[in-house]
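Office hours follow-up: a student asked to see two folded examples consecutively, so here they are.
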Amino acid sequence: MCENCAREDDDLVNVRRVYIVPESWDTPGSSTTLSEHELWCFSCRSQYPHEEVEDG
C-alpha cells in the first residue's frame, strides 16, 4: 500500500519526501528532504517531489 495516498499497488518504490518552498520577492526558494523512507506508487511519484532511495 502506498504510504502517501493509501492506494494498493504492486509498483511501490522506496522514496524520501521533498518539501519545496518557491522563491518569493523577499524570500529565497528552498527545499527540505526528509530522512525517513516511504513506499510510494507510480501516481504519487509522478506528481510529488521526492528522491528515490538507492538499494543497499
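And the second, which I mentioned at the end of office hours:
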Amino acid sequence: MEYEVVIGLETHIELDTDSKMFCACDARFFGAEPNTHVCPVCLGMPGAMPVINKRAVEFTIMVGLALNCSIARHTFWERKSYWYPDLPKGYQISQYQRPLCYDGWIDVDVRDVASGVWQEQAERRRIRIRRAHLEEDTGKLTHAGAYSYVDYNRSGVPLIEIVTEPDIRSADEAYAYLSALQQIVRYLGVSSADMEKGAMRCEPNMSLRPKGSQDFGVKVEIKNLNSLRAVRDAIAYEIERQTRILRAGGTIKQVTLGWDEARGVTVVQREKESAHDYRYFPEPDLPPLEISEAWLEAIRARMPELALSRQDRYRRDYGLSAYDASVLTAERAVADWFESALAAFAADDGRLAQRAKTVANWVQTEVFRLMKANGLSPSQINDIKVRPAQLADLLRLVEQGTINNNTAKFVLEDMFATGANAAEIVQAKGLAQMSDVEALRQIVNQVIAANPQQVAQVRAGQEKVFGFLVGQAMKATKGKGNAQIINQLLREAIAAADDLPAQG
C-alpha cells in the first residue's frame, strides 16, 4: 500500500527586542553567564507583576501581516500550566483561545534541495497558517550525566508561536516553508531566526495515511531540531520508519520524539500531551490587548516588500532568471544594495533589463567574491566600503570603453580596499583603456606580420586560433587595448591578407 505524509509545523521564533516580554530584563542574553539576565518577574517570584512589551506586540503583528493573517482587534493573555524545571512560574503566559494573528497563508517555492542541483522551475505551494500568537520563552535545560542545569536568561524572552494547517506533504515542502519563514522575519528585522542559537525552533507534527484517504493517521511530534537540514532529515527518516511499520501490519503510537543528529534517527521522549493537559485560563495580572485601527495602519505602513514578491518583480521587470532573483533577494540587505546600484546605473536611459543583468552578475561574482575573501557574509554587504552608486560608476566606465572588464575587476579590488571612486583609481594608476584606432591598427599589423601561420589557420576556418591573435594584441597593449576595436581590426586585417595562402 502507498502512504502519504501529512505535516503541520509549529515554529517558535524569538523576537529581537531590547527587553523581555513582561519585564525590563535585557533580552540580549546569548553568550552571557547563566542566570545573569533575570529579575523577580521572569523568575516567577511571588508578588512580581508583569508588564506588556509593546514592541513585541508590534513585531508579532508585522509577522502576522507578512503571513497574510487576520489581526485580532481584541485579545487577552492566558496561563498555560505545566511543570518543568525550565519554567520558573509553573506556567507560561501565552495565548490560546484568541491568538493575535490567525487564518493566514504563505506561498513557498518548493525545490528538491537534497539533490544539490538548482531547479530553475519550482513548484509554488500555498501553506495555510492557523495561528501566530505571542508568548514568553522558557529557560534552557542542559543535561550532563546524572545532573541537569537550568539557565533562566532565556526565560521571559518574547516568542512567536506560528502553527500551520496540516498542508505540508513532503520533507522538501517543510524545508521550503521554514526557509521562507526564516527569510520573512529577517526581512522584517524582528528576529535573527538563527536556529543554531535557538532563536528559531521547529516542531513538526506528522502522520501517515493511505494515499487518497482523507482521514488523518496517528500523529507524532519531533523536537530538538536545530537546523533546516535537521528538519528535512528527521521528517524523511520518520516517513521511512512509519511506512515500514504500517506495511508490516504494525501501529504508530502518539508520542513526542527527539532527533539524534549523530545517529540520524528519532528517539521516543514521552507521550504527547493534549491541550486540556495545560489547563489554560485567563491571565489575571494582565489587561486585555486592544489593537486600534490607527495602530494597525501605522504598523502596516512600515512593512517592506518581501523576498518572494521581489523575486517575481525581478523576473518580470528585469528579465532575471529564477536563480539570479533568488540569490539577490535571499538577504534584504543584498536586495536593497542591488536595487540602489541598478537605479544609479540605469538612471540615464531605458536599457533596464540589460543593465539589471550586468549589475546582478557583478554583485553575485565580483562583489561576493571580495566579501568572501574578507570573511564577510552577503548579509554584511552594507559594511563594505564600495557603495552602490560607486559600482554603477565603475560599470559605466566599462560601458563607455574607458576600461575593459579585466581592468574593472582590478579597479573594484582597489575600491573595496580603499573606498575610492573608480574614476580616481583609473586616472591615478593610468588604467584607461587604449582606444586610439590608428595606434591599435599598428599593433594589429605587427601581430599579423609576426604570426603568418596562425593568420592562415584562421582564414582556413580554425576560429579558435583567433583568440590567440587577440591575446597577442592585448599583450602588446599591456591589457589596456579596447578588445572590441582590436577584434574588429584583426578581422579586417585577416580578410585583407590575400597574399597569405589559405591552409586546409
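Two things to take away from it. Residues 500-504 have pLDDT under 50 and may be disordered. The chain has three domains: 7-206+272-295, 307-428, 437-496.
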